[in-house]
Amino acid sequence: MTFIEEQTLDTAKSHHLVVLVHGLWGNPQHLAAVATALRNKHPDPHLHVLLPKSNSGHFTYDGIELGGERVTKEIEEEVESLAKEGKVVGKLSIVGYSLGGLVARYAIGLLYSKGWFERIEPVNFTTFASPYLGARFARLGFQSRLFNIIGARTLSMSGRQLFLIDSFRDTGRPLLAVLADPKSIFIRALSQFKRRTLYANIINDRTAVFYTTAISRHDPFTDLKAVQINYIPGYEDVIVDPDDPVSAAAAAMGNSLVIHKSLSQSGQDLVRRIPTFAFLTLLVPVGILAFFVNSGIQSVRSNRRIRLHEQGKAGIVLGNYRIPLMVEDVQTAVEGVLDGLQSHSTNEGSARERSSATLDHDVTAATAYDSTSTSSKDDDGDDESHKNASSPTPSSSSTSSEEMVQHFLNGSSSTEKLSKATTTRAQQQPEFPTLALTPTQFEMIANLDAVGFKKYPVHIHHHRHSHAAIIVRMAKKGFSEGEIVLKHWLENEFDV
Can you give the pTM of this predicted structure? Predict the structure, then answer.
Protein backbone atom coordinates (compact mmCIF):
# COMPACT_ATOMS: atom_id res chain seq x y z
CA MET A 1 0.00 0.00 0.00
CA THR A 2 1.39 3.40 -0.97
CA PHE A 3 1.59 6.44 1.23
CA ILE A 4 -1.35 7.96 -0.67
CA GLU A 5 -3.55 4.91 -0.09
CA GLU A 6 -2.95 5.25 3.63
CA GLN A 7 -4.06 8.86 3.76
CA THR A 8 -7.46 9.94 5.03
CA LEU A 9 -9.47 12.69 3.37
CA ASP A 10 -9.95 15.90 5.35
CA THR A 11 -11.38 18.48 2.95
CA ALA A 12 -11.15 21.26 5.52
CA LYS A 13 -7.35 21.04 5.55
CA SER A 14 -6.70 19.37 2.21
CA HIS A 15 -5.01 20.91 -0.78
CA HIS A 16 -6.58 21.57 -4.17
CA LEU A 17 -4.70 20.39 -7.29
CA VAL A 18 -5.61 22.06 -10.59
CA VAL A 19 -4.31 20.34 -13.71
CA LEU A 20 -3.99 22.31 -16.97
CA VAL A 21 -3.70 20.13 -20.11
CA HIS A 22 -2.49 21.72 -23.36
CA GLY A 23 -3.60 20.87 -26.88
CA LEU A 24 -2.28 19.56 -30.18
CA TRP A 25 1.30 20.66 -30.99
CA GLY A 26 1.21 22.40 -27.63
CA ASN A 27 3.32 22.67 -24.50
CA PRO A 28 2.75 23.87 -20.93
CA GLN A 29 3.72 27.41 -21.87
CA HIS A 30 0.52 27.71 -23.93
CA LEU A 31 -1.44 27.68 -20.67
CA ALA A 32 0.82 30.09 -18.80
CA ALA A 33 -1.79 32.86 -18.90
CA VAL A 34 -4.42 30.49 -17.50
CA ALA A 35 -2.09 29.46 -14.68
CA THR A 36 -1.23 33.09 -13.92
CA ALA A 37 -4.87 34.20 -13.87
CA LEU A 38 -5.72 31.30 -11.58
CA ARG A 39 -2.94 32.07 -9.12
CA ASN A 40 -3.75 35.80 -9.13
CA LYS A 41 -7.41 35.15 -8.43
CA HIS A 42 -6.75 32.49 -5.80
CA PRO A 43 -3.35 33.03 -4.12
CA ASP A 44 -4.26 30.39 -1.52
CA PRO A 45 -1.17 28.28 -0.66
CA HIS A 46 -3.45 25.24 -0.55
CA LEU A 47 -4.07 25.57 -4.30
CA HIS A 48 -1.49 23.96 -6.58
CA VAL A 49 -1.25 24.13 -10.37
CA LEU A 50 0.16 21.27 -12.44
CA LEU A 51 0.98 21.72 -16.13
CA PRO A 52 1.74 18.22 -17.51
CA LYS A 53 4.64 18.21 -19.93
CA SER A 54 4.86 14.59 -21.10
CA ASN A 55 2.70 15.28 -24.18
CA SER A 56 4.59 18.33 -25.39
CA GLY A 57 5.06 19.09 -29.07
CA HIS A 58 4.65 16.26 -31.54
CA PHE A 59 4.01 13.79 -28.72
CA THR A 60 0.39 14.93 -29.08
CA TYR A 61 0.31 12.91 -32.33
CA ASP A 62 0.36 9.72 -30.25
CA GLY A 63 -3.35 9.58 -29.52
CA ILE A 64 -5.79 10.45 -26.76
CA GLU A 65 -5.35 7.13 -24.96
CA LEU A 66 -1.56 7.36 -24.68
CA GLY A 67 -1.78 11.07 -23.85
CA GLY A 68 -4.34 10.35 -21.12
CA GLU A 69 -2.12 7.67 -19.60
CA ARG A 70 0.83 10.06 -19.54
CA VAL A 71 -1.21 12.80 -17.86
CA THR A 72 -2.64 10.36 -15.31
CA LYS A 73 0.88 9.27 -14.40
CA GLU A 74 1.94 12.89 -13.88
CA ILE A 75 -1.10 13.57 -11.70
CA GLU A 76 -0.40 10.54 -9.55
CA GLU A 77 3.25 11.51 -9.19
CA GLU A 78 2.31 15.08 -8.23
CA VAL A 79 -0.16 13.92 -5.59
CA GLU A 80 2.45 11.55 -4.19
CA SER A 81 5.07 14.32 -4.19
CA LEU A 82 2.80 16.78 -2.39
CA ALA A 83 1.83 14.12 0.15
CA LYS A 84 5.48 13.52 1.01
CA GLU A 85 5.71 17.25 1.80
CA GLY A 86 2.75 16.90 4.16
CA LYS A 87 0.31 18.46 1.67
CA VAL A 88 -2.64 16.11 1.34
CA VAL A 89 -4.54 16.68 -1.91
CA GLY A 90 -8.27 16.45 -1.22
CA LYS A 91 -9.66 18.26 -4.26
CA LEU A 92 -9.00 17.92 -7.98
CA SER A 93 -9.88 20.20 -10.88
CA ILE A 94 -8.84 19.68 -14.46
CA VAL A 95 -8.79 22.12 -17.36
CA GLY A 96 -8.34 21.02 -20.96
CA TYR A 97 -7.52 23.22 -23.92
CA SER A 98 -8.29 21.98 -27.44
CA LEU A 99 -7.16 18.35 -27.75
CA GLY A 100 -6.19 18.59 -24.09
CA GLY A 101 -9.87 18.48 -23.18
CA LEU A 102 -10.17 15.00 -24.70
CA VAL A 103 -6.93 13.86 -23.08
CA ALA A 104 -8.29 15.16 -19.76
CA ARG A 105 -11.52 13.18 -20.20
CA TYR A 106 -9.51 10.01 -20.72
CA ALA A 107 -7.32 10.75 -17.69
CA ILE A 108 -10.23 11.29 -15.30
CA GLY A 109 -11.69 7.95 -16.39
CA LEU A 110 -8.46 6.24 -15.38
CA LEU A 111 -8.36 8.09 -12.07
CA TYR A 112 -11.98 7.17 -11.35
CA SER A 113 -11.45 3.49 -12.16
CA LYS A 114 -8.41 3.33 -9.87
CA GLY A 115 -10.40 4.70 -6.92
CA TRP A 116 -8.83 8.15 -6.72
CA PHE A 117 -12.23 9.84 -6.45
CA GLU A 118 -12.82 7.90 -3.23
CA ARG A 119 -10.04 9.96 -1.64
CA ILE A 120 -10.08 13.15 -3.71
CA GLU A 121 -13.12 15.28 -4.43
CA PRO A 122 -13.54 16.13 -8.15
CA VAL A 123 -14.54 19.80 -8.26
CA ASN A 124 -14.18 21.60 -11.61
CA PHE A 125 -13.95 20.15 -15.12
CA THR A 126 -13.48 22.89 -17.72
CA THR A 127 -12.60 22.92 -21.40
CA PHE A 128 -11.69 25.71 -23.77
CA ALA A 129 -12.23 25.08 -27.50
CA SER A 130 -12.12 21.29 -27.11
CA PRO A 131 -13.52 19.15 -29.97
CA TYR A 132 -15.86 16.81 -28.07
CA LEU A 133 -17.38 15.50 -31.32
CA GLY A 134 -14.13 15.28 -33.24
CA ALA A 135 -12.80 17.47 -36.04
CA ARG A 136 -14.89 16.34 -39.00
CA PHE A 137 -16.10 19.11 -41.29
CA ALA A 138 -19.86 19.08 -40.72
CA ARG A 139 -20.98 20.10 -44.20
CA LEU A 140 -21.91 18.21 -47.33
CA GLY A 141 -19.88 18.46 -50.51
CA PHE A 142 -16.61 17.40 -52.10
CA GLN A 143 -14.43 19.92 -50.24
CA SER A 144 -15.69 18.77 -46.85
CA ARG A 145 -15.15 15.14 -47.74
CA LEU A 146 -11.64 15.85 -49.00
CA PHE A 147 -10.78 17.76 -45.82
CA ASN A 148 -12.03 14.90 -43.64
CA ILE A 149 -10.03 12.34 -45.60
CA ILE A 150 -6.78 14.31 -45.56
CA GLY A 151 -7.10 15.52 -41.98
CA ALA A 152 -7.58 12.01 -40.64
CA ARG A 153 -4.34 10.84 -42.22
CA THR A 154 -1.89 13.59 -41.33
CA LEU A 155 -1.80 13.48 -37.51
CA SER A 156 -1.00 9.82 -36.79
CA MET A 157 -3.26 8.22 -34.15
CA SER A 158 -4.63 11.55 -32.92
CA GLY A 159 -5.81 12.36 -36.45
CA ARG A 160 -7.65 9.06 -36.82
CA GLN A 161 -9.31 9.54 -33.45
CA LEU A 162 -10.29 13.16 -34.10
CA PHE A 163 -11.87 12.23 -37.44
CA LEU A 164 -13.63 9.18 -35.99
CA ILE A 165 -12.07 6.58 -38.28
CA ASP A 166 -10.28 4.63 -35.54
CA SER A 167 -11.44 1.40 -33.93
CA PHE A 168 -10.56 1.61 -30.26
CA ARG A 169 -9.23 -1.57 -28.73
CA ASP A 170 -11.80 -4.37 -29.00
CA THR A 171 -14.87 -2.09 -28.99
CA GLY A 172 -15.05 -1.74 -32.78
CA ARG A 173 -15.98 1.91 -32.18
CA PRO A 174 -14.17 5.27 -32.34
CA LEU A 175 -12.46 6.30 -29.11
CA LEU A 176 -14.56 9.48 -28.88
CA ALA A 177 -17.73 7.37 -28.98
CA VAL A 178 -16.40 5.26 -26.11
CA LEU A 179 -15.55 8.41 -24.16
CA ALA A 180 -19.21 9.44 -24.47
CA ASP A 181 -20.75 6.05 -23.67
CA PRO A 182 -22.98 6.32 -20.55
CA LYS A 183 -21.72 2.93 -19.36
CA SER A 184 -18.06 3.89 -19.64
CA ILE A 185 -15.73 4.85 -16.82
CA PHE A 186 -15.18 8.15 -18.63
CA ILE A 187 -18.78 9.35 -18.35
CA ARG A 188 -19.00 8.05 -14.80
CA ALA A 189 -15.90 10.05 -13.95
CA LEU A 190 -17.20 13.18 -15.66
CA SER A 191 -20.47 12.99 -13.74
CA GLN A 192 -18.56 13.12 -10.44
CA PHE A 193 -17.38 16.71 -10.94
CA LYS A 194 -19.23 19.45 -9.11
CA ARG A 195 -18.94 21.77 -12.12
CA ARG A 196 -18.71 20.88 -15.81
CA THR A 197 -18.13 23.91 -18.01
CA LEU A 198 -17.08 24.55 -21.59
CA TYR A 199 -16.17 27.64 -23.59
CA ALA A 200 -16.56 27.55 -27.37
CA ASN A 201 -15.57 30.10 -30.01
CA ILE A 202 -18.42 31.15 -32.27
CA ILE A 203 -16.24 32.42 -35.15
CA ASN A 204 -12.72 32.19 -36.59
CA ASP A 205 -11.84 28.91 -34.90
CA ARG A 206 -10.89 26.71 -37.83
CA THR A 207 -9.05 24.29 -35.58
CA ALA A 208 -12.10 23.35 -33.50
CA VAL A 209 -15.37 24.79 -34.84
CA PHE A 210 -18.37 25.72 -32.76
CA TYR A 211 -20.56 22.62 -33.16
CA THR A 212 -17.92 20.28 -31.73
CA THR A 213 -16.58 22.53 -28.97
CA ALA A 214 -20.12 23.41 -27.84
CA ILE A 215 -21.52 19.87 -28.27
CA SER A 216 -24.26 21.12 -30.57
CA ARG A 217 -26.23 19.82 -33.55
CA HIS A 218 -26.80 23.42 -34.69
CA ASP A 219 -24.61 26.46 -35.34
CA PRO A 220 -26.54 29.71 -34.81
CA PHE A 221 -23.47 31.80 -35.65
CA THR A 222 -22.80 30.91 -39.28
CA ASP A 223 -24.24 34.27 -40.39
CA LEU A 224 -23.81 36.93 -37.72
CA LYS A 225 -25.67 39.48 -39.84
CA ALA A 226 -28.83 37.40 -39.57
CA VAL A 227 -28.91 37.31 -35.78
CA GLN A 228 -28.53 39.58 -32.81
CA ILE A 229 -26.06 38.18 -30.28
CA ASN A 230 -26.99 38.53 -26.63
CA TYR A 231 -24.06 38.95 -24.26
CA ILE A 232 -23.68 38.52 -20.51
CA PRO A 233 -23.43 41.98 -18.90
CA GLY A 234 -20.10 42.84 -17.33
CA TYR A 235 -17.94 40.89 -19.78
CA GLU A 236 -18.03 43.28 -22.73
CA ASP A 237 -19.18 41.71 -26.00
CA VAL A 238 -17.25 38.52 -25.43
CA ILE A 239 -19.21 36.02 -23.32
CA VAL A 240 -22.50 35.11 -24.98
CA ASP A 241 -25.55 34.43 -22.81
CA PRO A 242 -25.88 30.61 -22.88
CA ASP A 243 -29.59 30.74 -22.03
CA ASP A 244 -30.46 33.31 -24.69
CA PRO A 245 -27.56 33.37 -27.18
CA VAL A 246 -29.23 34.95 -30.21
CA SER A 247 -32.36 36.70 -31.31
CA ALA A 248 -33.65 37.34 -34.79
CA ALA A 249 -32.00 40.45 -36.18
CA ALA A 250 -34.30 43.46 -36.34
CA ALA A 251 -35.05 44.83 -39.80
CA ALA A 252 -32.61 47.59 -40.57
CA MET A 253 -33.92 50.97 -41.60
CA GLY A 254 -32.67 52.42 -44.82
CA ASN A 255 -31.75 49.10 -46.40
CA SER A 256 -30.45 50.65 -49.59
CA LEU A 257 -28.07 52.88 -47.65
CA VAL A 258 -26.86 49.91 -45.59
CA ILE A 259 -26.23 47.85 -48.73
CA HIS A 260 -24.36 50.75 -50.36
CA LYS A 261 -22.15 51.20 -47.29
CA SER A 262 -21.55 47.47 -47.09
CA LEU A 263 -20.47 47.24 -50.74
CA SER A 264 -18.27 50.30 -50.37
CA GLN A 265 -16.60 48.90 -47.26
CA SER A 266 -16.10 45.51 -48.93
CA GLY A 267 -14.42 47.19 -51.91
CA GLN A 268 -12.05 49.10 -49.66
CA ASP A 269 -11.20 45.94 -47.71
CA LEU A 270 -10.46 44.09 -50.95
CA VAL A 271 -8.04 46.77 -52.14
CA ARG A 272 -6.21 46.74 -48.81
CA ARG A 273 -5.87 42.96 -48.91
CA ILE A 274 -4.39 42.69 -52.42
CA PRO A 275 -0.76 42.63 -51.16
CA THR A 276 -1.71 39.98 -48.61
CA PHE A 277 -3.41 37.84 -51.27
CA ALA A 278 -0.35 38.12 -53.53
CA PHE A 279 1.93 37.06 -50.70
CA LEU A 280 -0.27 34.12 -49.74
CA THR A 281 -0.41 32.95 -53.35
CA LEU A 282 3.34 32.32 -53.13
CA LEU A 283 3.50 31.21 -49.50
CA VAL A 284 0.55 28.81 -49.22
CA PRO A 285 1.82 26.12 -51.66
CA VAL A 286 5.19 26.06 -49.92
CA GLY A 287 3.52 25.94 -46.51
CA ILE A 288 1.22 23.09 -47.51
CA LEU A 289 4.11 21.07 -48.87
CA ALA A 290 6.15 21.66 -45.70
CA PHE A 291 3.17 20.67 -43.55
CA PHE A 292 2.65 17.35 -45.33
CA VAL A 293 6.34 16.51 -45.25
CA ASN A 294 6.56 17.29 -41.52
CA SER A 295 3.32 15.41 -40.81
CA GLY A 296 4.70 12.35 -42.57
CA ILE A 297 7.91 12.45 -40.56
CA GLN A 298 6.13 13.02 -37.25
CA SER A 299 3.59 10.27 -37.98
CA VAL A 300 6.41 7.78 -38.49
CA ARG A 301 8.02 8.87 -35.22
CA SER A 302 4.67 8.75 -33.47
CA ASN A 303 3.98 5.20 -34.64
CA ARG A 304 7.39 4.18 -33.30
CA ARG A 305 6.61 5.74 -29.90
CA ILE A 306 3.23 4.01 -29.81
CA ARG A 307 4.85 0.63 -30.50
CA LEU A 308 7.38 1.16 -27.71
CA HIS A 309 4.59 2.22 -25.38
CA GLU A 310 2.57 -0.91 -26.17
CA GLN A 311 5.66 -3.00 -25.46
CA GLY A 312 6.08 -1.32 -22.07
CA LYS A 313 9.34 0.34 -23.10
CA ALA A 314 8.25 3.98 -22.82
CA GLY A 315 8.43 4.45 -19.06
CA ILE A 316 4.78 3.63 -18.30
CA VAL A 317 3.65 0.33 -16.80
CA LEU A 318 0.67 -0.56 -18.96
CA GLY A 319 -0.84 -2.75 -16.28
CA ASN A 320 -1.46 0.38 -14.19
CA TYR A 321 -3.67 1.99 -16.83
CA ARG A 322 -5.09 -0.68 -19.15
CA ILE A 323 -8.20 -1.21 -17.09
CA PRO A 324 -11.67 -2.23 -18.38
CA LEU A 325 -13.44 0.65 -20.09
CA MET A 326 -17.04 -0.26 -19.38
CA VAL A 327 -18.59 -0.55 -15.94
CA GLU A 328 -19.85 -4.09 -16.56
CA ASP A 329 -16.35 -5.07 -17.71
CA VAL A 330 -14.94 -3.76 -14.44
CA GLN A 331 -17.64 -5.70 -12.63
CA THR A 332 -16.58 -8.87 -14.45
CA ALA A 333 -12.94 -8.23 -13.56
CA VAL A 334 -13.81 -7.76 -9.88
CA GLU A 335 -15.89 -10.92 -9.88
CA GLY A 336 -13.00 -12.75 -11.55
CA VAL A 337 -10.72 -11.71 -8.69
CA LEU A 338 -13.28 -12.89 -6.18
CA ASP A 339 -13.59 -16.20 -8.02
CA GLY A 340 -9.83 -16.63 -7.85
CA LEU A 341 -9.74 -15.86 -4.16
CA GLN A 342 -12.53 -18.29 -3.44
CA SER A 343 -10.96 -21.05 -5.51
CA HIS A 344 -7.90 -20.91 -3.22
CA SER A 345 -9.93 -20.99 -0.05
CA THR A 346 -9.10 -23.85 2.32
CA ASN A 347 -12.29 -23.52 4.31
CA GLU A 348 -14.67 -26.46 4.17
CA GLY A 349 -18.33 -27.15 4.76
CA SER A 350 -20.47 -24.20 5.77
CA ALA A 351 -17.63 -21.71 5.33
CA ARG A 352 -17.31 -22.62 1.65
CA GLU A 353 -21.09 -22.44 1.23
CA ARG A 354 -21.19 -18.97 2.77
CA SER A 355 -18.44 -17.81 0.38
CA SER A 356 -20.41 -19.09 -2.60
CA ALA A 357 -23.59 -17.45 -1.37
CA THR A 358 -21.80 -14.11 -1.00
CA LEU A 359 -20.54 -14.24 -4.59
CA ASP A 360 -24.01 -15.13 -5.88
CA HIS A 361 -25.40 -12.12 -4.05
CA ASP A 362 -22.77 -9.84 -5.59
CA VAL A 363 -23.43 -11.07 -9.12
CA THR A 364 -27.19 -10.67 -8.66
CA ALA A 365 -26.78 -7.08 -7.43
CA ALA A 366 -24.41 -6.14 -10.23
CA THR A 367 -26.46 -7.88 -12.94
CA ALA A 368 -29.59 -6.00 -11.87
CA TYR A 369 -28.02 -2.82 -13.23
CA ASP A 370 -28.28 -4.01 -16.84
CA SER A 371 -31.52 -5.97 -16.53
CA THR A 372 -33.53 -3.37 -18.42
CA SER A 373 -30.86 -2.29 -20.88
CA THR A 374 -30.91 -3.21 -24.56
CA SER A 375 -28.47 -2.36 -27.32
CA SER A 376 -28.39 -2.25 -31.09
CA LYS A 377 -25.73 -1.46 -33.65
CA ASP A 378 -25.96 1.06 -36.45
CA ASP A 379 -24.26 0.65 -39.80
CA ASP A 380 -20.98 1.94 -38.35
CA GLY A 381 -21.05 -0.51 -35.47
CA ASP A 382 -21.91 2.16 -32.91
CA ASP A 383 -23.82 1.33 -29.76
CA GLU A 384 -27.17 3.07 -30.10
CA SER A 385 -28.48 2.35 -26.62
CA HIS A 386 -28.32 3.57 -23.04
CA LYS A 387 -29.40 7.16 -23.53
CA ASN A 388 -30.36 7.23 -19.84
CA ALA A 389 -27.16 7.87 -17.95
CA SER A 390 -28.39 7.88 -14.36
CA SER A 391 -26.15 5.96 -12.01
CA PRO A 392 -27.42 2.67 -10.58
CA THR A 393 -27.71 2.19 -6.83
CA PRO A 394 -27.34 -1.45 -5.82
CA SER A 395 -28.55 -2.48 -2.39
CA SER A 396 -26.10 -1.89 0.42
CA SER A 397 -24.19 -4.68 2.11
CA SER A 398 -21.55 -4.97 4.78
CA THR A 399 -19.48 -7.49 2.84
CA SER A 400 -16.17 -6.34 1.39
CA SER A 401 -16.89 -7.98 -1.98
CA GLU A 402 -20.16 -6.07 -2.29
CA GLU A 403 -18.35 -2.83 -1.53
CA MET A 404 -15.83 -3.55 -4.26
CA VAL A 405 -18.56 -4.05 -6.86
CA GLN A 406 -20.40 -0.95 -5.67
CA HIS A 407 -17.22 1.13 -5.88
CA PHE A 408 -16.65 0.31 -9.53
CA LEU A 409 -20.32 0.61 -10.44
CA ASN A 410 -21.15 3.77 -8.57
CA GLY A 411 -18.01 5.42 -7.26
CA SER A 412 -18.34 6.65 -3.68
CA SER A 413 -21.57 6.44 -1.72
CA SER A 414 -22.08 10.16 -2.25
CA THR A 415 -21.98 9.88 -6.04
CA GLU A 416 -23.98 12.60 -7.74
CA LYS A 417 -26.46 11.10 -10.21
CA LEU A 418 -26.17 12.18 -13.78
CA SER A 419 -28.33 15.21 -14.48
CA LYS A 420 -30.21 15.99 -17.65
CA ALA A 421 -29.17 19.15 -19.43
CA THR A 422 -31.69 21.95 -19.21
CA THR A 423 -33.08 23.22 -22.50
CA THR A 424 -35.46 25.94 -21.35
CA ARG A 425 -34.63 29.29 -22.95
CA ALA A 426 -35.59 32.72 -21.68
CA GLN A 427 -36.89 33.63 -25.11
CA GLN A 428 -37.95 31.77 -28.23
CA GLN A 429 -34.81 31.21 -30.32
CA PRO A 430 -34.67 31.36 -34.11
CA GLU A 431 -34.57 27.96 -35.78
CA PHE A 432 -31.35 26.74 -37.38
CA PRO A 433 -30.76 23.75 -39.64
CA THR A 434 -29.29 20.56 -38.21
CA LEU A 435 -25.69 20.05 -39.26
CA ALA A 436 -24.54 17.10 -41.40
CA LEU A 437 -23.18 15.07 -38.52
CA THR A 438 -22.77 11.31 -38.36
CA PRO A 439 -25.08 9.04 -36.32
CA THR A 440 -22.19 8.49 -33.92
CA GLN A 441 -21.85 12.23 -33.35
CA PHE A 442 -25.58 12.68 -32.72
CA GLU A 443 -25.41 9.90 -30.14
CA MET A 444 -22.39 11.53 -28.51
CA ILE A 445 -24.31 14.82 -28.23
CA ALA A 446 -27.23 13.11 -26.49
CA ASN A 447 -24.97 11.27 -24.06
CA LEU A 448 -22.81 14.27 -23.17
CA ASP A 449 -25.83 16.55 -22.78
CA ALA A 450 -27.33 13.99 -20.41
CA VAL A 451 -24.36 14.49 -18.10
CA GLY A 452 -24.94 18.23 -18.06
CA PHE A 453 -22.61 21.06 -19.08
CA LYS A 454 -22.73 24.79 -18.68
CA LYS A 455 -21.90 25.96 -22.21
CA TYR A 456 -20.58 29.47 -22.90
CA PRO A 457 -20.22 30.68 -26.49
CA VAL A 458 -17.30 33.11 -26.85
CA HIS A 459 -17.10 35.96 -29.36
CA ILE A 460 -13.52 37.00 -30.07
CA HIS A 461 -13.57 40.16 -32.22
CA HIS A 462 -10.03 41.50 -32.22
CA HIS A 463 -8.11 38.59 -33.71
CA ARG A 464 -8.85 36.05 -36.42
CA HIS A 465 -7.00 33.32 -34.53
CA SER A 466 -9.67 32.89 -31.90
CA HIS A 467 -8.50 29.37 -31.07
CA ALA A 468 -5.34 30.81 -29.54
CA ALA A 469 -6.94 34.00 -28.24
CA ILE A 470 -9.54 32.26 -26.08
CA ILE A 471 -6.87 31.28 -23.52
CA VAL A 472 -4.34 34.04 -24.31
CA ARG A 473 -1.92 31.44 -25.65
CA MET A 474 0.78 34.07 -25.92
CA ALA A 475 1.30 37.65 -24.78
CA LYS A 476 -0.30 39.43 -27.70
CA LYS A 477 -2.44 42.55 -27.76
CA GLY A 478 -5.02 41.00 -30.06
CA PHE A 479 -5.57 38.19 -27.55
CA SER A 480 -6.76 40.52 -24.78
CA GLU A 481 -10.35 39.30 -25.06
CA GLY A 482 -9.13 35.94 -23.80
CA GLU A 483 -8.43 37.62 -20.49
CA ILE A 484 -12.15 38.40 -20.26
CA VAL A 485 -12.91 34.71 -20.88
CA LEU A 486 -10.58 33.68 -18.06
CA LYS A 487 -12.04 36.37 -15.81
CA HIS A 488 -15.55 35.04 -16.38
CA TRP A 489 -14.44 31.46 -15.74
CA LEU A 490 -12.71 32.26 -12.46
CA GLU A 491 -15.50 34.50 -11.22
CA ASN A 492 -18.41 32.22 -12.11
CA GLU A 493 -17.37 28.67 -12.94
CA PHE A 494 -14.45 27.80 -10.69
CA ASP A 495 -14.92 26.63 -7.12
CA VAL A 496 -11.98 26.58 -4.75
Answer: 0.72
